[in-house]
Q: What sequence folds into this?
């Protein structure tokens, strides 16, 4: 039985006409989506635009949304990757709505916090930069399976792919990443970690 | 999933603005507008049923006490007087789940909640998610409509059911 405030229940309420249920889902997941977007874009304003795009896309594609293990997050993270990859298109599509948002405050504190965060996330950030040679679907598989550490069954469900396809794509993506990561220059302390991650791949 | 609890978050001011834009976006979709129109029709239809049921029992001066036999909905009357046409002005609250009979037993609680949510206030906007809470009458009486459903009347008068042509609830 689903709890009243589970993602599945809230999503059902949202598509049945409850905008407050949709707002609750936004409140619940916006931070995770933002952080994922920040790793992708390395820019706060772009990351915020990605968050907006993800939730606009969620509503636009509401009939295609997939709830995995009672959570909408895997699907949102998949869309985050796609929106970040096509940020300009997303900005054009939702230009009218994005124009309603107040301009960002460009404070030193925020910039420092973001820089610190991105430095701390260097391993993930470099992994993500090395993903760019992969297809969008392969990127989503690697993001969900290796970065977000979701079970393969959940990844398959979120992407609506057979689990065998996910396994084979992940295997091929791993091989590509191993060669890409090996070719990346080592920098500061993160290089060792990155190589370790490359070894794990 | 990976934990990124040390990461910065969105600018709260922009996040709240985005939240507001999103809810407007959801509300403005044509599909959602159709749902709201259907809901309005349903509410007006419910009011019409109340009017018809009221007209049906008009003229009966004293009615025997009855039990609630129709647990599918409760009628919350907004006044202890009938309308000029003999109708019972108010709103119906449908019960659609297994907990229905239990909630009918607590018909007063259900109607109190509707009063609290401002459903009977003059400035109530059925489309607004932020209607101001309203005062709840200090006392209610439960009567029985002709179709066996419960009717909750805002009144301190224990004989109000007879006075407005409804059956009192069987003790």
A:
């Amino acid at each position: 039985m689903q709890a009243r405030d589970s993602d599945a229940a809230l999503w059902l309420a949202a598509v049945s006409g409850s905008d407050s249920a949709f707002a609750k889902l936004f409140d619940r997941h916006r931070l995770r989506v933002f952080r994922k977007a920040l790793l992708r874009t390395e820019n706060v304003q772009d990351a915020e635009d990605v968050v907006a795009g993800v939730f606009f896309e969620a509503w636009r594609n509401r009939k295609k949304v997939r709830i995995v293990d009672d959570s909408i997050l895997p699907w949102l993270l998949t869309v985050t990757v796609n929106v970040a990859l096509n940020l300009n298109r997303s900005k054009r599509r939702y230009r009218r709505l994005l124009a309603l948002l107040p301009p960002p405050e460009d404070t030193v504190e925020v910039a420092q916090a973001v820089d610190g965060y991105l430095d701390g996330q260097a391993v993930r950030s470099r992994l993500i930069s090395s993903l760019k040679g992969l297809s969008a679907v392969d990127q989503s598989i690697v993001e969900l399976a290796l970065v977000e550490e979701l079970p393969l069954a959940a990844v398959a469900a979120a992407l609506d792919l057979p689990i065998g396809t996910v396994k084979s794509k992940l295997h091929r993506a791993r091989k590509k990443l191993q060669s890409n990561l090996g070719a990346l220059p080592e920098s500061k302390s993160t290089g060792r970690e990155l190589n370790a991650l490359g070894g794990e791949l | 999933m990976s934990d990124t609890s040390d990461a910065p978050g969105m600018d709260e001011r922009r996040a709240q603005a985005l939240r507001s834009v999103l809810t407007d976006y959801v509300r403005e979709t044509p599909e959602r507008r159709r749902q709201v129109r259907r809901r309005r029709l349903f509410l007006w239809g419910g009011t019409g049923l109340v009017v018809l049921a009221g007209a049906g029992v008009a003229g009966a001066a004293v009615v025997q006490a009855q039990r609630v036999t129709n647990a599918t909905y409760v009628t919350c009357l907004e006044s202890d007087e009938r309308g000029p046409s003999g109708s019972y002005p108010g709103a119906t609250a449908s019960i659609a789940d297994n907990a229905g009979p239990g909630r009918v037993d607590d018909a007063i609680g259900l109607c109190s909640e509707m009063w609290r949510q401002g459903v009977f206030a003059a400035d109530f906007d059925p489309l607004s998610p932020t209607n101001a809470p309203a005062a709840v009458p200090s006392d209610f009486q439960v009567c029985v409509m002709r179709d066996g459903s419960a009717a909750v009347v805002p009144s301190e008068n224990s004989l109000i059911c007879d006075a407005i042509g409804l059956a009192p609830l069987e003790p």
In short: The interface with chain B takes residues 14, 16-17, 19-20, 22-23, 26-27, 30-32, 34-35, 38, 44, 47-48, 51-52, 55-56, 59, 73, 97, 100-102, 104-105, 110, 113-114, 117, 120-121, 124, 147-150 of chain A (CB under 8 Å). Chain A has two domains: 1-104, 121-201.
